[in-house]
């Protein structure tokens, strides 16, 4: 497992969901139009966000390492997302399903892991660097929410997603995002 773990995290060419840049003139966020896509997800309940991300990541990592009905290894993708709902201690952690498995992803054998289809959506995205903590994600989400409110942009304020693109071993030029869905 060490070799596959290293290969997964040191790969620089990981698949990600398809999106196109929608018209926007903002320099502090962008509006993206994401295509419909399948994600493999798990919900972690009653933990801190940091612990939920850790537990969720490993459940999903085991799925892509073969803990699925086909006992098939699946390539790692980016981003790793986490759904944050206001006043809720349930966190949904997700990996994008690679394109070659979008039509028929292997079903998970862990009852806590499931395949979901996210419909096409317009998403406001704010990017930032460094190592992202739950506090940093919340801070960046609040900055994005404030900007969107000030500009009169309608968005779903009761939840946001965090999106991480880098392995914990990457020290420089890290990329993180927070996402709000446009209404």
| Main sheet properties | 9 strands, antiparallel
Give the class from helix and strand content and strand pairing.
Answer: alpha+beta
| Quaternary structure annotation | single chain
Q: Uncertain spans, ≥5 residues at pLDDT below 50?
A: 1-11
User: What helical percentage do the residues reach?
Assistant: 10-25%
Distance between the termini: 43 Å
SSE order in H/E notation?
HEEEHEEEEHEE
Number of helices: 3
Q: What's the total number of strands?
A: 9
| Rg measurement, Å | 16 Å
Query: Beta-strand percentage?
Result: 25-35%
Shape verdict: globular
Biggest sheet strand order reads 1-2-7-9-8-4-5-3-6
Average predicted local confidence, pLDDT: 91
Report on the structure:
This protein is globular. It is built from three helices and nine strands; from the N terminus they run H-E-E-E-H-E-E-E-E-H-E-E. The chain is of the alpha+beta class and 183 residues long. Strand 1 (19-21) and strand 2 form a beta hairpin. The longest helix is centred in the C-terminal third of the chain and has 17 residues, at 134-150. A nine-stranded antiparallel β-sheet has the order 1-2-7-9-8-4-5-3-6, with helices on one face.
Brief summary of the model shown:
The protein is built from three helices and nine strands; from the N terminus they run αβββαββββαββ.
Labels describing this entry:
single chain, 183 residues, alpha+beta, nine-stranded antiparallel sheet, 3 helices, 23% helix, globular, disordered N terminus
Write the layout of secondary structure elements.
Blueprint: H1 2-10, E1 19-21, E2 30-34, E3 37-45, H2 49-64, E4 80-85, E5 90-96, E6 113-118, E7 121-128, H3 134-150, E8 159-164, E9 176-181
Antiparallel strand pairs: 1-2, 2-7, 3-5, 3-6, 4-5, 4-8, 7-9, 8-9
């Amino acid at each position: 497992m060490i070799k596959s773990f290293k290969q997964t995290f040191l790969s620089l060419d990981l698949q990600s969901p398809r999106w196109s840049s929608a018209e926007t003139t903002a320099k502090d966020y962008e509006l993206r139009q994401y295509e419909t896509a399948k994600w493999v997800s798990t919900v972690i309940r009653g933990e801190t966000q940091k612990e939920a991300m850790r537990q969720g990541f490993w459940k999903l990592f085991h799925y892509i390492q073969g803990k699925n009905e086909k006992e098939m290894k699946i390539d790692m993708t980016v981003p790793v997302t986490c759904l944050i709902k206001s006043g809720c201690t349930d966190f949904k952690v997700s990996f994008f399903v690679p394109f070659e498995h979008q039509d028929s992803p292997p079903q998970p054998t862990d009852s806590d892991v499931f395949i979901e289809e996210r419909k096409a959506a317009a998403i406001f995205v704010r990017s930032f660097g460094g190592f992202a903590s739950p506090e940093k994600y919340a801070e960046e989400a609040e900055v994005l929410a404030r900007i969107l409110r000030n500009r009169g942009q309608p968005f779903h304020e009761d939840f946001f997603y965090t999106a991480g693109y880098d392995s914990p071993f990457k020290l420089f030029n890290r990329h993180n995002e927070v996402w709000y869905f446009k209404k």
